[in-house]
């Protein structure tokens, strides 16, 4: 599981039948301590109604196909949660409402 920030969306009018009606978002992985970009952006199917600018939890591989929305859908990454806060070793590194 990774933490990432939603930075964009993808519109695809021609796609696999099982992807029709699914929201595809671009997520940039984040370092959990610094909350800075860490790695290359990826495309994930949204299962929780997240949007641009939100910090989210992303699963990949077979775990991405374990939600009601993604069961049997050809996806490799899925957004499964919107992060409210991150606390590491007693220090708050992220708070949705600001620091």
Overview of this protein structure:
Strand 6 and strand 7 (91-95) form a beta hairpin. Helices cover 0% and strands 41% of the residues. The strands form 2 sheets. The chain has a 5-stranded mixed beta barrel. It has a two-stranded antiparallel sheet with strand order 6-7. The chain is mainly beta and 99 residues long. The protein has strands at 2-10, 24-29, 42-46, 55-60, 77-82, 85-88, 91-95. The radius of gyration is 14 Å and the shape is elongated.
Record keyword descriptors for this entry.
99 residues; mainly beta; 5-stranded mixed barrel; 7 strands; 41% strand
Query: What is the percentage of strand-forming residues?
Result: 35-45%
Net shape: elongated
Strand line-up in the sheet with most strands: 1-2-3-5-4
Which class of secondary structure composition applies to the elements?
Answer: mainly beta
Summarize the structure.
This protein has 99 residues and is mostly beta strands.
Topology diagram in text:
Layout lengths: L1 E9 L13 E6 L12 E5 L8 E6 L16 E6 L2 E4 L2 E5 L4
């Amino acid at each position: 599981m990774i933490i990432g920030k939603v930075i964009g969306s993808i519109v695809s009018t021609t796609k696999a039948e099982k992807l029709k009606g699914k929201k595809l978002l671009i997520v940039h992985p984040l370092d959990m301590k610094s909350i800075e970009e860490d790695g290359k952006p990826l495309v994930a199917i949204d299962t929780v109604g997240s949007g641009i600018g939100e910090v989210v939890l992303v699963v990949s591989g077979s775990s991405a196909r374990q939600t009601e929305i993604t069961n049997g859908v050809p996806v490799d990454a899925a957004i499964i949660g919107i992060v409210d806060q991150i606390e590491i070793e007693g220090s708050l590194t992220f708070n949705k409402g600001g620091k």
